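Appendix B, example 12.
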Amino acid sequence: MEQEKQDNQENILVIGPSWIGDMVMAQSLLMTLKERNHDCRISVMAPAWTRPLLERMPQVEKSIDAPMKHGELKLGTRRSLGKRLKSEAFTSAIILPNSFKSALVPFHASIPRRIGWRGEWRNPLLTDCRKLDKEKFPLMVQRFAALADPVSINPPSKIPKPRLHIDSANVAIALQKFGLDHTRKITVICPGAEYGESKQWPSAHYATLCNSLITQGWTVWIFGSSNDVTIGQAILSNVDSDKRMNCKNLAGKTSLAEAIDLMSTAQAIVSNDSGLMHIAAALAKPVVAIYGSTSPDFTPPLTKRVKLLSTDIECRPCFKRECPFGHQRCLTELDPARVIRAVDELASTIPTKE
């Protein structure tokens, strides 16, 4: 009987995205799949760096590292990987990226059902190739979650918000490793953005924010990748000397796993439009999200307690990596007082510790 159940079990391979924020939003699809079929097995193939995220998604049974870098075609590698995956006996595959190359592994693995949105001449590689109506599916999370169901002209009526699982033991280890005191209220700031400087609120503005928060009794932790070390240092150097003991620059020092676990202890998070912003939302933290050249209309942070801040100058959103006019007014004119006020408003509605 048990063997018959296993033989009939839905075994799903999800081809995941290559960006942190997109991978966070992909959890809504995984949660929807589990809601539709609690006994289904879900494996996710994605770049190796996504493992810390996938390990915190209880819906994922297995992670499969994609050996290709973002943008690499590597036809032979994809063919070989697909043939190796035949032994996994996947019953269906859901391909989230819209590229031709992302559909190759499920095709070579001979997975019977291969589902995805139409894109980049990949129709012959899919058995269920869907035409996207962008007006009816304006959000990325809607486009992801809809692939859990048969073809529909409308998004699912209820889409679960991403929620990362946190292990308290891992949190304690990370706190000890970096010598962090979390007895005061903690605001995490995420001043980087892999997309480019047109998403980055000025370091001087972040320093003003830090000075104000520390004066109010907060501790501030700065997070980011190795690419954000410089801006983290610039912020810290502009924090008043008597306040620096309550401002910890962790940019470039933590792994992604450690950053996630440490962010889970914060009472508020201020972030540019970035992957860490989406992680903050998936931790159910109050989020102040700062938008420069981009807009929350496609990929907003998926949490209830959020403040979306931007300027209303005529040239935004332009979605450029660098300001075409060189002035970056969409960021420089976003006054720190607005961000401070947003943190205060969010903090007034939550307990001191969650």
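The first strand starts at residue 11 and ends at 15. The longest helix spans residues 20-36.
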